[in-house]
Specification:
By secondary structure, this protein is of the alpha/beta class. Helix content is about 60%, strand content about 10%. The radius of gyration is 19 Å and the shape is globular. Pfam families: Recombinase, Resolvase.
């Protein structure tokens, strides 16, 4: 990996781009990483886009610059690149090295797994939001009113808050298991199962599930 970086920042709305909300946090995270590894950022590029879209002209510009300068593409979090596995796959196929500060040692397989979880989470939130809107309509609540975007945002925030709360409850148990000397993700998954701890949806514990819990918890707590 080159110690010469092109940093890529992305925010989802034009309002965030103008206000700098979200950009400062990404920039600070990148600056800390670059300073720690003794690297250099040769250019910073910012895109105002939706994470679900695949047409990212500024990202394409960043990739092209990395190729020309033999630089590494640097982002604060993996979801700043995309939340779909197919997009990450196309990025890997370009041959450009890239690093997400929140998972700097992740290999290509890990990146695919993390992206798959992010895509799955987004689909779940979208599905639950649609179901909530259908239920609201069935109760006679008028949809399509000027405040529906606000209501949708509130529904999404509620779902995310619930997921964050679950992570906050499970993370101390995982920490306790690690303190006992079990450090592999598979070992932690087995220990959680042996203790009768259920996943948020009542499913089986897997290494990737443990990793996702820890990532979400550390992202929420900083």
């Amino acid at each position: 990996m080159s110690a010469v970086f092109v940093s890529y920042l992305r925010v989802s709305t034009e309002r965030q781009g103008v206000s700098g909300l979200g950009l400062d946090a990404q920039r600070a995270s990148i600056d800390r990483f670059v300073h720690a590894c003794g690297g250099t950022v040769i250019e910073e590029l910012t895109e105002i886009e939706s994470g679900k879209r695949s047409d990212r002209p500024v990202l394409e510009q960043a990739i092209a610059l990395c190729r020309r300068r033999k630089a590494t593409l640097l982002v604060a979090k993996l979801d700043r690149l995309a939340r779909t596995v197919s997009f990450i796959s196309r990025l890997i196929e370009t041959g450009v090295d890239f690093v997400a500060v929140d998972n700097p040692h992740a290999n290509k397989l890990m990146v695919h797994v993390i992206s798959a979880f992010a895509e799955h989470e987004r689909d779940l939130i979208a599905g639950r939001t649609r179901a909530a809107l259908v239920a609201a309509k069935a109760r006679g609540i008028t949809l399509g009113n000027p405040r529906i975007e606000e209501a949708r945002d509130a529904a999404v925030a509620c779902i995310r808050k619930s997921a964050d709360g679950y992570c906050a409850n499970i993370a101390p148990i995982i920490a306790q298991i690690r303190a006992s000397g079990v450090n592999s993700l598979q070992g932690i998954a087995d220990a959680l199962t042996a203790r009768g701890v259920r996943t948020r949806r009542g499913g089986q514990w897997h290494p990737a599930t443990v990793r996702n819990i820890e990532r979400r918890y550390f992202a929420a707590t900083g």
